[in-house]
Amino acid sequence: MVWFACASALEGCDDVSARKAEKILNRRYWLCHWFFYAAVVSGFSLVIWKAVGLQIMEHATWAERSRAQVQTTLKVPSYRGSIYDSRGRLLSYSVPQPSLYADAQHVEDPLQLARSLSGILGDCEKNLAAKLKSQRRFVWLKRQMTDGDAMRVEALGARGLGFTREYKRFYPYRQLGGQVLGFVGLDGEGLEGLEKIHDDFLTKDHRVFGQLRDGGRKSLWHAPEPPPQPRESWGLQLSLDAFLQYVAEHELEKAALKYQAAAGQIVVLNPRTFEIYAMANWPSFDPNLPGRTSASHWRNRAITDAFEPGSTFKVFLMGAALEEKVVTVNDRIFCDNGRGRVAGHTIRDVRPHGWLTVPEVIKYSSNIAASKIALELGREKYAGYIRSFGFGSPTNIDLPGEIKGLVRPEGKWRPIDLATTGFGQSIGVTALQLTVGIACIANGGEFSEPVLVRRHVNSDGTVLDARDSRSRRRVLSPWTARQVTQMMRLVTEEGGTGVNAVPEGYTVAGKTGTAQVVDPETGRYSSDRYTSSFTGFVPAEDPKLVITVVIQEPQGAIYGGAVAAPVFREFAAKALPYLGVMPSNFERVPAEGFQWAGSVAGGEGRGEEELSQETSRSQDRESWGRTRISRPMPSFVYSYKRDKDRGLSGE
Amino acid sequence: MSPAREALEKSAAVSRKGRDARETGERMWPVLPTHVQLWLQVSFLILAGLIMIYSSSSTMALQRYGDSAYFLKRQMIWVFLGVGMMIVFSRIPYEKYKAWMGPLLLASLAALILVLIPSIGTEVNNARRWFRLGSFQLQPAEYAKVVWIIYLSASISKKQDRIDQFSVGYLPHVALCGIFSALLLQQPDFGMTVIVAFMTAVMLLAGGVPFLYLFSAVPIAAVAAYKFVYLVGYRWERVTAFLDPWTDHLASGYQLIQAWIAVGSGGLWGKGLGAGHQKLGYLPEAHTDFILAVIGEEMGFVGLVFICLAFLLLFHTGMTISRNAPDFMGSLMALGLTLLLTVQALINMGVVLGLFPTKGLTLPFVSYGGSAFTANCLAAGILLNIARRGGRAK
Fold first, then answer.
1. Which 3-state string (H, E, C) describes B242-289?
2. What number of other Cβ atoms are within 10 A of residue B15's Cβ?
3. Do B323 and A11 count as a contact with CB atoms less than 8 A apart?
4. CB crowding A422-433: b at 16 or more within 10 Å, else e
């Protein structure tokens, strides 16, 4: 500024001298001239000074004010993630569906519109008309309708109607695993099962973006690409297998219908990983339409209902007694010929026995012997083992509503309670607890918590985190576990109670159970209501599956060996080939099994017999799972082989 | 030769060269002719204005008119018109205005009266200031103030020998100024009135009217200020808002605070061209009166200083033209026109930065707006003519 003044001063002097001859600029002009110079220069200095103050001294303050009023965030919600089975099959997923609403104030002819809408939606015309006449600014007409219906409604071109996009939950396998999966409400909130307990996780993956807003508080998306759309949230991959789940439900339903049962459950578990492969409930329900069935069907009884396990519980007693060396496998126990007095009460066996070896106690399921062993073991030790096997506490599975079962404090046990607990009465367990307990024996005595959610996955299927690291603890020594397993094998061998449980070609270790049910009205054991169960694992020498079948209140037959064991067999016969488990016991399978398959064309002795049996079975749709053992292979394989043979012989 | 001696000789040579240059009228550094300087300064401001008009109005134009270059295109038309006017007026000898003074003054008075008639003038925001020509609007007061300066310089230079007489040098001019002011206040256009009154005072002062007469006008101005500022609600509100914008930061103080946020958040280097946020509906009149705030936000302190420098150079050039004008009328006219441009710029900058209460004044050559722009081009064109006629080159 000073420079300007000086420079112009010099110039000014020049000019005066140079131009005096032509024009006279008076003193007043010069006074004003320099005064304005000074004024304007100081004016601009003032402006610059103020700008320095605002832009350099107070910059941080103003920048923060600017940021505060301009910046905002855009939260892009995500829609509910999918649930997959262990092989990636979709069990549950969300699909955007149009939902129709009305702004009743803009509807021109409510009655006419109601009539045409009712024709498309199939809803009551009166209800629609009432909604359209309500003068409300927003009223739902039909939520989550089909795209076709939406297009037809759009074609009406009526004023006052609008669509929004809502996400509808679909369960493509319908009733499959309904109680495990649960369902969601109309607004997408999880109401039952996995959907409920993982509700937060399934909708968690929302994204937040920074964006600007303008002076009218409206958001401005300031980026070259369009604003992000809602995307699918994280999903769950279960250990459940849709095929095994289907087989379990199918077999369970067959048995339940055959015996007119009140309810039934199957739990299938991998005894090495403790992953749940199937968890079936009967009666089933379809989570697509939860309103169609009564709310009691939504309950996952395998974890929410306790039952008295009956004789199946003897294996835990035996495990505890062997581990504590109260008995050895060579001991003999007198069974009072079917009617014994224990602790002042009479206990009966189904069949009278005299002396039984310890393994035979399991094989023939003697209540009297079990009572004696339990009394010998003592209540503290026995209760300790019961709790170690996981009874009396929840298994911490990822499902809502799990109960801990009923194990009364051992301090209050009378001798008769101890005795009856020995054969599985006066104790309450869930089907899942029972399965996990048996899995502990199958796993060589090592206990773990069951796993249902195997991993968290991204919407594109990539794994977020695997969730199979559960704490393990040893309950029995491997030797004891092996002893108990051997006894459980006896059960399924000739003369045992569980012979019906053995699928051809495989060995089974298991235990039947038949328990009386306490009548809630009288508080006494009912004479005609039983819980039939069979629990065990297969193959016995290298367990791949632990299966528990529980049928509540079967009619006609009551024994676990008759009601539940065949379900076990049918399931195992289909599940094991599916899992690629080779038969170990070839004695019961014809050695020339593949040769008779060729007899589709030729026909030959035993093969034909098997075949006819097969054909008759496939007529009642039972045998399709038994592929590897006895089903005829597709004939083209054999014709190819025979052609080859012929070719060879030709040469 | 020792280095010290060498340096001494060299400095002696330099000083000798400087003295020679002064004596011969040559320069130590090359200086462009004043009319070229003026062209460069005005072109710089016009270009900066076009860029900043596009930057500050594009979002709003897109929302309102569906074309982000809407205001840019319109301003381009004005630029062509204005530059054309500059060229034309730089060729008209300014002495001729002496003869045309009467008709010009009458015409502008007539325009100011016509604009007040409801069927002719267009009313926007309770002010009737514009003639509508298609989709464009013309504000006669902008041209009237240039005419008024031309008239004053012509009249004062003509009456130079009797300028100290009250009835000759003072009264007619003040009376005419009063008529102008009254007409402007009818629109109402208070900012323009202040400018006209201020320019009248400047011209009379430079023209040699005795101080006593001029000071006698001070009480009148004080009374007028009281009547037209203190007693008019919204104007007084602007003054209080200027003094303390935070008491009413969502209404009267809003504009100033938003301008401060814009300028302050720009910092030293600015947020970058086009990257400002305040134009997104926060800063009212971002492309017209408050375009300097957008410049401060996007180009930072550096950009603001450049604009200030441009105006300062323009002022310097204008004053040089005034000094070198061939006669007193030219000197006076150049002084008045230069000050008209500079003072408008200063007031506009002061308003944006909170040094003055809010006035509806644009930043010359930079702000969007047709009438003000072309009127300023008119002033620059006349200045150019005075520069060409006056002699530094000889």
1. HHCHHHHCCCCCHHHHHHHHHHHHHCCCCCCCCCCCCCCCCCCCCCCC
2. 10
3. yes
4. bbbbbbbbbbbb
Q: Is beta strand A446-448 parallel, antiparallel or unpaired with respect to A472-474?
A: antiparallel
ipTM exceeds 0.90, yes or no = no
Which of chain B's residues have a Cβ under 8 Å away from the Cβ of A56?
267-268, 301
CA distance B246 to B264: 16
Q: Are A194 and A398 in contact (CB under 8 A)?
A: yes
Per-residue pLDDT reduced to its tens digit, B155-205 = 998 888 888 788 888 888 888 998 998 898 888 888 888 899 999 999 998
- Cα(A612)–Cα(A409) distance, rounded to whole angstroms? 57
The closest of A442, A471, A429, A625 to A546, measured between CA atoms, is: A442
Best of A47, A50, A64, A213 to mutate (most B CBs within 10 Å, chain B): A47
The lowest-confidence range among A454-463, A619-628, B286-295 is A619-628
Q: Dihedrals φ, ψ of A456, to 5°?
A: -95, 130
Q: Distance from A3 to chain B by nearest Cα, in Å?
A: 11
Considering only the beta carbons, identify the residue of B282, B308, B350 that sits closest to A215: B282
pLDDT mean over A155-167: 87
Whether residues B206 and A46 touch (CB distance < 8 A) is answered with no
Residue indicated by tokens 């007489």: B165
B-chain residues near A36 (CB < 8 A): 202, 319, 335, 339
A535 within 8 A of A431, measured Cβ to Cβ = no
Q: Mark yes or no for CB contact A41/B312 under 8 Å.
A: yes
Amino acid at B295: I
% of chain A at pLDDT higher than 90: 41
- 3-state DSSP call for residue B360? coil
Domain ranges across chain B: 33-390
A84-107 tens-digit pLDDT: 999 989 999 998 889 999 988 888
A229-279 tens-digit pLDDT: 888 888 999 999 999 999 999 999 999 999 999 999 999 999 999 999 999
Q: How far is CA B112 from the centre of its chain?
A: 20
**H-assigned helices in A288-339:** 301-304, 314-323
Q: Is the pTM higher than 0.80?
A: no
CB proximity list for B279: less than 8 A, separation 6 or greater: B55, B56, B57, B59, B60, B286, B287, B294
Classify each residue of A397-412 as buried b or exposed e, where b means 16 or more C-beta atoms within 10 Å of its C-beta.
bbbbebebbebeebee
| Chain A: closest CA distance from residue B131 (Å) | 31
Name which of B206, B260, B301 is nearest A56 (Cβ-Cβ).
B301
Closest residue, chain B, to A64 (C-alpha)? B265
Flag if B308 and A56 touch (Cβ within 8 Å): no
Find residues 10-69 of chain A whose CB sits inside 8 Å of chain B.
10-12, 14-15, 18-19, 22-26, 28-29, 32-33, 36-37, 40-41, 43-44, 46-48, 50-52, 54-56, 58-59, 61-63, 65-67, 69
Q: Please tell me the distance from the alpha carbon of residue B379 to that of residue B147, in angstroms, as a whole number.
A: 9
**How many angstroms separate the first and last alpha carbons of chain B?**
42
Question: In angstroms, rounded to a whole number, what is the distance separating the alpha carbons of residues B239 and B249?
Answer: 14
Q: Provide CB contacts within 8 A for B255, sequence distance 6+.
A: B283, B284, B285, B290, B358
Q: Map residue B159 onto helix, strand or coil.
A: coil
Helices (H), A236-353: 242-258, 301-304, 314-323
Angle between helices B34-65 and B70-91 (to 10 degrees): 160
- What is the tens place of the pLDDT at every residue in A37-76? 999 999 999 999 999 999 999 999 999 998 888 888 888 8
Examine the pLDDT at A296 and tell me if it is beyond 80: yes
